[in-house]
Amino acid sequence: MIATASASVSRRDAEAYQTRILPAVSRTFALTIPQLDARLRRVIANAYLLCRIADTIEDEATLASDVKQEFHDRFTRVVAATEDPASFARDLAPLLRGNTLAAELDLVAHTPAIIEVTDGFNLAQRQALARCVQVMCTGMPSFERRASVAGLPNMREMDRYCYYVAGIVGQTLTDLFCDYSPRIAERRDAMAALDVSFGQGLQMTNILKDFWEDHDRGVCWLPHDLFARAGVRLEEVHRGQQPAAFGRTYAQLIGIAHSHLRNALDYTLLIPEREVGIRRFCLIALGLAMRTLASILAKPDFTAGAQVKVSRQVVKKIVIVTRLFAGYSRVLRGWFGRMAEDLPLQALASDWGGLLPDPHSTWPRSDACGPAQAFK
Predict the structure, then answer these.
(1) d(Cα 246, Cα 215) in Å, to the nearest integer?
(2) Which CATH architecture is the domain 147-356 placed in?
């Protein structure tokens, strides 16, 4: 029998659990989140763990689609404080008996502890987190239900998918950064023009890296029409037998991801130079993505994500650079330029911004980003 956390867990214990479980469910965020000031660290770690619970529901292979949707809807209500988290955890945890990892199961079982931390945030923060989960739990399943190895119909659908699973996270980061700092809030409009692109750049990098692992489970998030125009049918591609046209089209997508990551750099440099913790948080993720794209480009015949994964030595170098130069925008542009030297660059569609706002969201994005609005 699976033990779920008590609904009466103390906030101190809940925060201790959140700190303990984070590295068990994400190596990358366990590296980036500690760069943040303590106030931001708590809320962004909480945001990540909430999203991870939503992902766990969707990724469990033994759950029927209607059951997944039921728990997505319930989890949305849990985060919105209209459903009991203990009941949610008690009902879901025993059903995660397929491919869910032990750490993910533990996280779901401790949903009350995660929500106890959520409940301690101010109104603007809680609204941002609730909107993020609501958008993700509405949009992500709609794509997962239709997924196949044939890919998504076109680039616009890939953009929409990336918004639901990552672009909304970029928006949420802007909301949380602005709530944290009046100086950052002054740059909200400029950041809001780039935050979805920031999320998409990171997500597209993961999609390109994980193509074969996704293919093995019967899904593909690449645009079918782009490959079809090159004479490639995604459903007919096999390991070790990729035609040259597949690699050339892959390079076009690397160029699009690169363009989004250029936006991610601009987004990061809008953060005041003295906010080195936030900059490091963004820059580590950006650096890892750029080096991953370079690795994919250099090995177009890769057959597993592990073959193009960034090495530990490269990770250490990225961390050192961000530690030394996070507060120096000119140096960071030079660093990015060196990483980008051999990468293709593809212009983004002119109507890319037409994806927003998300029509399914019932949680309007708050205009309350300054300190006057961030009330308890």
Answers:
(1) 15
(2) Orthogonal Bundle (1.10)
pLDDT of residue 4: 59
Q: Which amino acid is at 337?
A: G
Could you say which DSSP state residue 152 is in?
Answer: B
CB 227 within 8 A of CB 249: yes
CA–CA separation, 149 vs 113, rounded Å?
38
User: Residue 274, Cα to own-chain centre: how many angstroms?
Assistant: 25
pLDDT value, residue 349:
76
Is 76 in contact with 68 (CB distance < 8 Å)?
A: no
pLDDT of residue 368 exceeding 90, the answer is no
Q: Residue 168: name the closest of 283, 54, 327, 310 by CA.
A: 54
Q: Is the dihedral of CA 63, 80, 103, 36 positive or negative?
A: positive
**Chain position carrying tokens 């892959």:** 250
Give the dihedral sign, CA 186/190/192/194.
negative
Exposed/middle/buried for 147, CB within 10 Å: 0-12, 13-18, 19+? Answer: middle
> What's the maximum distance between 2 C-alpha atoms anywhere in the chain?
59
Please determine whether the domains at 12-145 and 147-356 fall in the same fold group of CATH.
Answer: yes
User: Distance between CA atoms of 111 and 56, rounded to whole angstroms?
Assistant: 12
Predicted pLDDT at 9: 83
Where does 12-145 sit in CATH, by number?
1.10.600.10
**Half-sphere exposure of residue 333, counting CA atoms within 13 Å on the CB side?**
7
How many alpha carbons fall within 13 Å on the CB side of residue 287?
29
Confidence of residue 364 (pLDDT cuts 50, 70, 90): very low
Task: For residue 248, count other CB atoms closer than 10 A to its CB.
Answer: 14
Q: Where are the domains of the chain?
A: 12-145, 147-356
* Residue 310 three-state SS: coil
